[in-house]
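Section 3.1: Structural characterization of target chains.
Under the original work plan, the team committed to producing a structural model for every single-chain target entering the pipeline before any wet-lab resources were allocated. The record below documents one such target. The sequence was received from the expression subgroup and is listed exactly as submitted; it comprises 786 residues.
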Amino acid sequence: MRLALIGFALGTALLQLQPTLPTETSTIGLGAAGLALLLGAARVPLPWLRPALSAGGAVLLGLAWAALCANARLADTLPDASEGRDLVLAGTIASLPQPFDRGVRFEFEVDDPTAARVPRHIQVTWYSSYAGAPDRPVPIVHAGERWKLVARLRKPHGNANPHGFDYEAWLLERGIRATGYVRIGRDNAAPERLDAFTWSMQSVVDRMREHIRARLQSSLGDAPYGGVIVALAIGDQRAIDNEQWQIFARTGVSHLMSISGLHVTMVASLAGWLIFALWRQSVRYTPRLLLMLPAPQAAALGGFLTALTYCLLAGFQVPAQRTLYMLGVAAWAIWRGWFGSATRVLALALAVVALLDPWAALSAGFWLSFGAVALLLLTGQAAGLRAHWLRTALTAQAAITIGLLPLTLVLFQQVSLVGPLANAVAIPLVSLVITPLALAAAIFPIDALAHLAHGLQQLLMIYLEWLGRLPFAVWQHAAPPWPLAALAAVGALWMFVPWWWSWRVLGLAWMLPLFLYTPPPPEAGDVRVTVLDVGQGLAVVARTREHTLLFDTGPAYSPEADGGNRVVLPYLRGEGVERLDGMVVSHDDSDHSGGALSVLSAVPVGWMASPLQAKNAIAQAAGARARRCIAGQAWEWDGVRFEFLHPAPEDYVHLSDLPDNAQSCVLKITAHGHGVLLPADIERDVEARLPASALKSEVLVAPHHGSQTSSSPRFIAAVAPATVVFPVGYRNRFRHPAPEVVERYRESGAQLLRTDSGGAVMIDIDAGGARTRLYRETQARYWYGR
């Protein structure tokens, strides 16, 4: 039974690795084969074969079930004809509205999606201003309101990079099948509020959460950690700023700073314990009550209902739902009297979560939660019932820290070494004191409760900030390949199995390859160039055997997010790059320089070349490392040549008079006689001034994203590229690349690649020539472009 339950969950996880979905006929075949294996396993005369057949059949059933759910969800899609057009939609705000500096974002449930030719559940952003529209104040919107508005939608799309966040998978899991923004202009009717409130369970819960958020924010005002208190009370993490998240990540307590599975479990356990104690005492007054419902069953029911209430308060988001399913299985097991079958309960909870949420395996929390529970069960059995409480606590902490190390490295490429010290204080303080106070402040309109919770959080932050500043706080490591991670996971489990200590130490040998692993660098003379998918912008990483260069840093998405902290840094961390030998900021346009400050503050940088003036914030952050990029400058790293082709020395005399694009640094990288040309945003006048003899390159990153003002026929002929890369955002408002430019390159015979459709472009140059790969092809998933 346990193997079958685990096999079903494994089957749902395996589907999420597939580049395409099975056809309807194949799905039916998988399900039928799985069911036949399960039913036939009991009749097999060989006892040792039955578990294997049951597990195999369950895996096939899991695959079929996940495929069925995925096909149903992907069927609710935005037609091509509706994408990028102004659509009149009527519907209800179906989430807690999230205000930000330029507007508000919310989920929208469309009244009649068939007639509107749109998916039912979409995400809408209402900007105060956007290209082509005047600055207009955004009205205050509330959950449950029904609106009629004009929106421009697009299919789910996100940046696709190695070691990056998969936004498209995140949208798929939450059932959001299109994203877009409200259109306001001369040709569009003004948005109209049709109803102040639409009655539904979701609307009631979201309006209640919105009221609590407003009250807590009013009570705490500008308190620095008010966002943490709101997150602990209702699960809204948007008010926690990026600097605070960095402290939580460095100290390994990020999982505590919202309504997490740990908090839901502890609140449910506390409620269950209180009900159990009171129920047993009721025998003095109403003995019949205990006969009708025994105390353990009453406690299980009460704990589950408490967890349900808490999850509703959190907005019933997917992570909270998983915890609720797990607790529901545990409550049912207590109801049935399965007190000695913890592993069976865990396996059943795993299968139930996979059944109700086939995309659970895409979430890091899913693996960490079940991994932590499995380790705690294992260490609990090893410690024995008579172990001292302190020894049990230390064993549990060691199990979580060591046992989840391989998984943490795979998911995040870093581990907080001070995490055990931080969690030893933060877990009891946050879970048993601060969170109950935040909940009490949410339920009862008493400002003192919120201020007390904030004061305790402020004291905790002093301790966490001190730990986070320690030089050894975080250990970063390259993302390991899955065979090494699996081997290390087996070793971690081996260390906590109740063997003799001499046997347990063998687990370290299984984990050692993970610690020693480093991604193979290019050979001497070779170069690996990656054009990252940062949307409408540019960021390129070039690696030789011993050196790494970053050319541009992507755009600024918001005050908290940019191409540096969202794309470049995760990529460098996953590749095991701990420092940059050089960094080029080609010019001051925000789509090229938006992530520079994040990169400079996060990793050591040897030098930074740019045309930026000394008063520029980026140049000031670089300090003594800042230098100019001047045509003629050249250097060699590990047999690979780097050379600047622009700006010329005389350009710096009147640099401030030149447009930003004309100031762009142009860099050529040459290995084995094959070049990669990075011209940033130069336009035709600069192209004409570049030395034609130096331009010829195997790979060209299209100037100015393929705009009409660049890529002259003379320039294309001089470069004669075999491959052209267009670094562009999906359906960008500039309409890059221009059709006539694309046609010009196509007529030249070049292979054309785009980051919006292909994701990151990986270019390897060695003695055999230049080879290119697209991330969306090498790591294809069935939801890409759907």
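The radius of gyration is 29 Å.
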